[in-house]
Amino acid sequence: MRRHGGARRVGEIGDAAARAAQSARSVEEFFEAVKRVVRPALRFDVCACLTVDPQTLMNTGGDYRDGLPPALMPRMLDIEYREGDANDLSDLAARPTPVGLLSRETSGNLTLSPRYRDIMRPLGFRDELRVLLRDRHGAWGALVMGRADDAPPFGSAELAAAASLVQPLGNALRRLHLTRLAEANASETAPGLVLLDADHQVVHATPTVAIWFNDLAHADGVPSGDRGLPPAVYAVAAAVQAAGAAASHTSWMHSRRHGRVRLHAWRLEEPTAAPARTAVVVERAGPAEHIALIVAAYGLTPRERDVMTLVLRGRSTADISRSAGVSPHTVQDHLKSVFDKTGVRSRRDLVATLFARHYLPDMSPPAFAPQRRPRD
């Protein structure tokens, strides 16, 4: 494959992008480095870079500076999580190679896609290429790229290049999640409540919403002066309005100022809250979000997760053996694997490290740090 005067084998593109993003300390830096490396090969005109919850594939933020206009984001997320469309993230996640081209997924009839009809065609874009960034521990983000009508179509070479990004960038983004978990800052801001109408327009917002959402919008690459909400908010709101969906849905996203935050949406029934149709609460993430993301980011197996949880509760090897119905030797094998994956050497070190990396930042001022315990 030759682009812009340089030659590079397809298999090298993902590795080069991962190396370029290795020193990134934020999602924006990560995706900026990735775009710089892959643009010559993929030649996109727009590119939205998003992070996703590995448990749910819900949008949790990202970098939209080279993406679609912010005003179109509510409609985009409504299609993604409520209406459904070809080439969506859940479709990609089910494939051995999670790469999709909208024109191929619609057999050349792009007008079958509401995303094309309502967003791409009015803006003058001919096609959409998506790649889900995942490793063996889960999906961590995605690249959504578009080409304008006056550009050549995406071809087999671009699809092969996109496929080469899946594993190396998925792995690199998971590691960045670990860094962000460790560096999350405390937040004392009271929860915020926003009510949205059927078109996801704000009907009412409590005073603290501006504090939460202005920061979250900035973290997503949306200018702080823009009155729109972050994409993750529209996503969770659309999820509860989907046909057959549960009346409530919980997701999370990352904020520079507040660390991990929980987004909880409820579907409101008429006529009690007319014209509001959806309520979304934003608040600091709790222990459930901590442990779920820690387990996924470190790549722990279900059994290793169970053992780690019991260790964090102070249970002995004998207790864990009885609870899990396995031999003490098997418990020790699982525990050794947990140590290897989390980079510690003892139970006490495991407890102290997880607390310092993932819980203390949300509980104490950044200046406070615990004294390191001696090893067992």
From TrEMBL:
Top-rank taxon, per record: Bacteria
Keywords: DNA-binding, Transcription, Transcription regulation
HTH luxR-type domain location: 293-358
Signal sequence bounds: none
Family annotation (SMART domains): HTH_LUXR (SM00421)
InterPro entries for the chain: GAF-like_dom_sf (IPR029016), Sig_transdc_resp-reg_C-effctor (IPR016032), Tscrpt_reg_LuxR_C (IPR000792), WH-like_DNA-bd_sf (IPR036388)
This protein's name: LuxR C-terminal-related transcriptional regulator
Organism from which the protein derives: Streptomyces werraensis
